[in-house]
Design a protein that fits this description.
The chain is an alpha+beta fold and 586 residues long. The chain is 57% helix and 12% strand. It has 17 helices and 14 strands. It has helices spanning 8-18, 21-25, 35-62, 78-87, 106-140, 143-155, 286-320, 343-375, 379-414, 426-434, 443-456, 461-478, 485-508, 513-518, 520-549, 554-571, 575-582; strands at 66-68, 71-73, 159-163, 179-182, 188-198, 208-214, 227-232, 234-236, 242-245, 248-253, 264-269, 275-280, 324-327, 336-338. A hairpin with a 5-residue loop joins strand 8 (234-236) and strand 9 (242-245). The longest helix is centred in the last third of the chain and has 36 residues, at 379-414. It starts with 7 loop residues before the first helix and ends with a helix. Bound molecules: flavin-adenine dinucleotide (FAD).
């Protein structure tokens, strides 16, 4: 079994060539950021991921979370790893310093989060959900709620959860039934059952803070009647310490295909007097607030897909370099070779690598855009970057998680029969990756969001702005000489396909929305594939420049060029077919 090795060289490439760290450092409040600091952070994160989280990954799979009488026991080693994670300040990496965070940009956190997920996805889910809770409280919590909870969540002393799903309310949250009954003292009592709640119960911290969607008695039906509440496992006392046990309990945990180390809990609220809860923001605006958490979480799940894909790729390379089978194509000497020498195995490995590097590049530039959307001084820049982020969230979530399923499946294939055997570890990556395309909104839900809310609603304005940026890179590639012409050609196909698809969405949505929705996943795939090609195109141009200027790392940059070419032939060639099926109608 191969342990995870954080892909620091490629991450450094992304920081050096694809994002603009000096411009981020020039944003108000980011004066402390430097290239040296960014490198130091990812190197330290890499050490933690490789040395602490990765060795626990398989243990979490074979010895997952256990439930008995409402108590959840995590995998042996999890508690200590979590303590180290929190003490290292990783939990509050992007949180503001006034609540004890490190105030580092999302650009860097995108890379550290990839490492947590690549080394141990089941573990990484816990801090991922806490981050979503922190963001919702920061943006909509009252001063009293912020004072009581934020610092403890940022430090990792307590963890956060997201309680949306109920048996009858999955993708369709308008069906949420959990009741919130107002009390004379301004609090509420919650009654209802939530299912599939990640880290709803565990033994890592002394308190767990649940964010819960529920309805007040007079709330209107549907999504306009859902409110967001905060219900702690232990209600904090006057000193802010965990006090009385709240009326909420984990009724059971699920037996799952993957991420066995992550407890997936049924949460019962109000078996007795009702779970004491506080309203976040205003009544009936819960879904709107929850979207704050969901957007952060959707982005994070996309990055999760990337992390697992990278791990599977590394395992496949290691296996292909050691497994001896057959002779090299065309060699009559009979000398046996490692399978990495076979053209079809190389195709698989190269395709995996191209997808993974494309995902990393796309994820990081979306993280960078979040930094500008939140922190740029000019309102125009903030709005433009936010429009890009909004457009890209469903793409990052769905394209990357579907690609992760493909990459982890290819890793099984590269291993042959051994891939189907648990000991090699790739079967776990394949099983773990499968959930990422389902939770936080399935691929179908992301695709509907992309074509509806993100493209049709603004008449295609944000999408066309993106296409113009891709076109710019494509034009540069066209002028870039023979070694990047395959990329220029296939990216041109991609731009043409995107223009047609945006036109299709904008003109057909009013008259035949079913036709648009029937093609929506294919449309989303085209967007993802072309954005990946766009970023590998930028990477190829940067590699050409580095090679022309002379570099000690020429082999790395030549591989970058080769990987971009693989992407053009193996992945961008899918675009015309997908674009055709996307517009086939219902
Ligand atoms: C391991 C795990 C962890 C989870 N963690 C959490 C958590 O922490 N908190 C939480 O609240 N929930 C959590 N969930 C729940 C998860 O978010 C839901 O399972 C997911 O949103 C899908 O809902 P569903 O299972 O009810 O499927 P359904 O909504 O029944 O969907 C079934 C199928 O129908 C499709 N579909 C449904 N509606 C539409 C539509 N309108 N248009 C097109 N296609 C549609 C879906 O794409 C899917 O293919 C978790 C689930 C799992 C398995």
């Amino acid at each position: 079994m191969t342990e995870y090795a954080a892909p620091l060289r490629d991450m450094q490439f992304v920081l050096d060539h694809l994002v603009d760290l000096p411009a981020i450092a020039a944003l108000p409040g980011r004066e402390d950021l430097s290239a040296e600091l960014a490198t130091a952070v990812i190197e330290e994160a890499g050490r933690f991921a490789n040395g602490v989280l990765s060795p626990l990954n398989r243990r979490g799979d074979v010895n997952g979370a256990r439930w008995a009488d409402g108590v959840v026991t995590t995998t042996p080693g999890w508690i200590d790893a979590y303590r180290q994670f929190a003490e290292g300040g990783w939990n509050g990496l992007v949180a503001p310093t006034d609540h004890g965070g490190q105030n580092l940009p999302r650009t860097i956190a995108t890379l550290t989060e990839e490492m947590w997920n690549g080394s141990n996805m089941a573990f990484a889910l816990c801090p991922m959900l806490t981050r979503g809770a922190i963001e919702a409280i920061e943006l909509r919590g009252s001063d009293a709620i912020k004072a009581t909870y934020l610092e403890k969540l940022v430090s990792g002393e307590w963890t956060g959860t997201m309680n949306l799903t109920e048996p009858q309310a999955g993708s369709d949250l308008s069906a949420v039934r959990t009741r919130a009954v107002p009390q004379a003292d301004g609090t509420y009592r919650l009654f209802g059952q939530k299912i599939f709640i990640t880290y709803g119960e565990h033994d890592l911290t002394e308190n767990i803070i649940h964010l819960v969607l529920a309805r007040t008695p007079d709330a209107p039906a549907g999504v306009k009647g859902i409110s967001l509440f905060l219900a702690p496992k232990f209600v904090p006392d006057a000193d802010g310490k965990p006090g009385a046990r709240n009326d909420l309990i984990c009724g059971s945990i699920e037996h799952k295909l993957g991420i066995h180390g992550s407890p997936t809990c049924t949460m019962d609220f109000g078996r007795n007097e009702g779970a004491t809860a506080w309203l976040i923001g205003e009544e009936n605006r819960g879904l709107e607030y929850m979207f704050i958490m969901m957007n952060a979480a959707r982005f994070a799940v996309g990055i999760q897909g990337l992390g697992v894909a990278e791990r599977a790729y590394q395992a496949a390379v290691a296996y292909a370099d050691s497994r001896v089978q057959g002779v090299a194509a065309g060699d009559r000497s009979g000398t046996k070779v490692v399978i990495a020498r076979h053209p079809d195995v190389r195709r698989m490995l190269n395709t995996m690598r191209a997808q993974t590097e494309a995902m990393r590049a796309v994820g990081t530039i979306v993280g960078e855009a979040m930094d500008f959307a939140a922190g740029a001084s000019e309102a125009g820049v903030r709005a433009e970057r936010q429009a890009f982020v909004d457009l890209m969230i469903p793409i990052v979530k769905a394209w990357m998680t579907e690609a992760a399923i493909e990459v982890t499946s290819l890793a099984v294939q590269v291993h042959g029969g051994m891939g189907f055997i648990e000991e090699t570890g790739v079967a776990q990556q394949f099983r773990d990756a499968r959930i990422a395309a389902i939770y936080e909104g399935t691929t179908g839900i992301q695709a509907a969001d992309l074509v509806g809310r993100k493209i049709a609603r603004d008449g295609g304005v944000a999408a066309r702005a993106l296409i113009a940026r891709i076109r710019e890179t494509q034009t540069q590639l066209r002028a870039g000489g023979a070694e990047v012409q395959a990329l220029a050609d296939r990216l041109e196909d991609g731009v043409v396909a995107l223009e047609r698809l945006v036109e299709f969405i904008v003109t057909q949505t009013a008259s035949d929305v079913s036709a648009v929705l029937a093609g929506s996943v294919a449309i989303l795939q085209v967007f993802g594939l072309v954005c990946g090609g766009w970023q590998l195109g930028r990477s190829a141009l940067a590699a050409q420049k580095a090679l022309a200027e002379g570099t000690a790392d020429a082999a790395f940059y030549r591989e970058k060029l080769a990987t971009a070419e693989v992407y053009a032939w193996q992945l961008l060639t899918r675009v015309p077919g997908l674009a055709l099926s996307a517009t086939a109608g219902r």
